[in-house]
Structure formats: C-alpha cells, structure tokens
Task: inverse folding
C-alpha cells in the first residue's frame, strides 16, 4: 500500500484520526485506500490509549465512491471473499461491516460529496457528523442499480 493514501494522526488525547488522502481523485476508494482505512481503524481499536476514532477525507470531499477507473491495477484485494457471482458486493460489504465489530466508536466527519462507496463507509460508522456543505447519495440508483441496502439498514 502506498503509505500516503491514508494519513493517521492524533489531534487530541485519546483521539485517532484517519484521513482518506487521495484528494486528486476525490478520495475514490481503491483497494489500497480501503485496506489502509480498515488497518488503521483496527490498529486504533487495539491501542489502549485510543478511545474514539474519526474518519475524514482530505481535500474538497469525504469520498466520491469506489475507484471505477484504472486505480486498482497491481493491487490485491484488502481481504478475502469467495469469488464467483456477487463477489464485489460481498467483498465491499464484508470490509465495511468490520467497522461495526470494532470495540471503540468510529465517527465519520463528512464534508462535500459523500457518494456511493463513500456513503457506505460513512453509514457503517457509529456516528456521522455532516458539514453544511455535505451531500450524501447513491447515484447508481438512478440507473436501476439497487442500493446494497446499507442506507436502509443503518437508518
């Protein structure tokens, strides 16, 4: 994983902040970024000095969704899911649902666009804090692609 796609810092005692750092791609979620987010959250969850985690995006938005272009070449999936029909939705659902298994609260700090996979990430957090300019949505629904039910489940 490129070490700079996820930035980790501690802005206050007991607070671990994970920043999606692909602003030039509006924090599009490629394999490296998705794996880095989850590894950073798991490390924070295991750290006894951390009491809360924050996930946010660098640049103009939280996340524009999944990387649909050429952003995954040479990258392995961040975790294993059986292949075959339905591989992609199982793969991403398994990843984001692992946030629910963490023992410490995770807050999504959303600004700008929070679309598709970005909205899935945000709604899997324990709390979503949205700035005045935040816009959350699942654009593929307009084309007949069903939402994978994250939003209905978590609302």
Result:
């Amino acid at each position: 994983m490129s070490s700079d796609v996820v930035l980790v810092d501690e802005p206050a005692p007991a607070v671990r902040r994970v920043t999606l750092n692909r602003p030039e791609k509006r924090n599009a979620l490629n394999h490296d970024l998705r794996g880095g987010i989850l590894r950073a959250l798991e490390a924070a969850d295991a750290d006894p000095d951390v009491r809360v985690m924050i996930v946010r995006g660098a640049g103009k938005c939280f996340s524009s969704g999944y990387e649909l272009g050429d952003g995954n070449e040479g990258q392995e999936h961040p975790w294993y899911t059986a292949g075959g029909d339905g591989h992609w939705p199982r793969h991403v659902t398994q990843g984001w649902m692992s946030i629910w298994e963490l023992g410490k609260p995770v807050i999504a700090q959303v600004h700008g666009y929070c679309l598709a996979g970005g909205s899935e990430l945000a709604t899997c957090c324990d709390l979503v804090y949205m700035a005045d300019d935040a816009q959350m949505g699942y654009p593929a629904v307009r084309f007949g692609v069903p939402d994978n039910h994250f939003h209905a489940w978590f609302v």
In short: The first strand starts at residue 6 and ends at 12. The domain at 6-154 is CATH 3.90.226.10 (2-enoyl-CoA Hydratase; Chain A, domain 1). The chain has a mean pLDDT of 86.
